[in-house]
Amino acid sequence: MRTLSETILKGDAGSFVDVTVDRALSHDGTGIQALTALKEMGMDRVLRPDRTSIVYDHIVPANNSVTADLQAELRRFAIDNGIDFHDIGEGICHQVMSEGIVTPGEIVVGADSHTCTMGAFGAFATGVGASDMASIWATGETWLKVPETINIRLEGKLPRYVEAKDVALRYVGLLGAGGANYKTIEFTGDNDLGMDDRLTISNMSVESGAKAGLFYADDVTC
């Protein structure tokens, strides 16, 4: 039986696959770096602007005139290309992507290590560097090694005064900082976790070195 990662990526664990990226995410920091890399490739357009999001949330407002100039350049680029652009004050990138953008079964790649947050929706969501993001902007595609999977079963209800962040800190503590290096953590089990809880638990998977942290989509997924 295939894991959720193998199903979404259409490959066996350990194999290399070329994939079409359903959602590409950058923020004001990595987006500027990706734009620089894109220009170095001799390109000035994004292939799939409707599938590309840029969210200004890291250095906002700009901390100096150089940052302000770079943000202005990226803002113009995003608007000129018809990219899904979220300016200062519209939210944190992972929160923005979770509000009606990412859907189950998608491949989501972000120039931010905590892109794994979107695994809460049953999407394969992972982070890459800015140069990789520039390539995704240019081609709409990337390649991945299909990760092996660690299954963590979450059973029952959270005790009083215990929250999803406590669950995340517990499993990261058990696995260690590199215990899930280039693996997917798939969270299963009979529990009452809501979407906020799942987003929190998936978000922390990278702290154990995981490539992604996934929940299976169900009636709770929204």
Describe what this molecule looks like in 3D.
- This protein is of the alpha/beta class.
- It is 32% helix and 21% strand.
- It folds into two domains: 4-145, Aconitase, domain 3 (2-Layer Sandwich); 149-215, Aconitase, Domain 2, CATH 3.40.1060.
- The protein has seven helices and ten strands.
- The strands form three sheets. The protein has a five-stranded parallel β-sheet.
- Helix 2 crosses helix 5 and helix 6 (164-175) runs parallel beside helix 7.
- The mean pLDDT is 96.
Q: What characteristic shape results from the CA principal axes?
A: globular
Summarize the helix and strand pattern as letters. HEEHEHEHEEHEEHEHE
Amount of beta strand: 15-25%
The radius of gyration computed from the alpha-carbon positions, rounded to a whole number of angstroms, is 18 Å
| Overall tally of domains | 2
For the secondary structure, the number of strands is: 10
CATH architecture of the largest domain: 2-Layer Sandwich
Write a brief caption for the model:
By secondary structure, the chain is of the alpha/beta class.
Task: Please give the structural blueprint.
Layout: H1 4-9, E1 16-20, E2 23-27, H2 28-40, E3 52-55, H3 65-81, E4 84-86, H4 93-97, E5 107-110, E6 124-127, H5 130-139, E7 141-145, E8 148-153, H6 164-175, E9 183-188, H7 195-203, E10 212-215
Parallel strand pairs: 2-3, 2-5, 3-4, 5-6, 8-9, 9-10
Antiparallel strand pairs: 1-7
Helix pairs in contact: 2-3, 2-5, 6-7
